[in-house]
Design a protein that fits this description.
mainly alpha
């Protein structure tokens, strides 16, 4: 039984790492896209 635990733990941590990477990528996309959209809207408002 003790031999199954490290295997399970490593696959679980790999799964958690994958979830964390997705979460970080999502946050990065939001932090890049939101100011980008705000900048585009600001430019459009200023050009009118």
């Amino acid at each position: 039984m003790s031999h199954d635990v490290p295997k399970k733990a490593s696959s679980q941590s790999a799964n958690d790492a994958q979830k964390a990477m997705r979460f970080i990528a999502l946050k990065a996309a939001i932090f890049i896209l939101v100011p980008l959209v705000a900048a585009v809207l600001a430019v459009l408002v200023l050009l009118k």
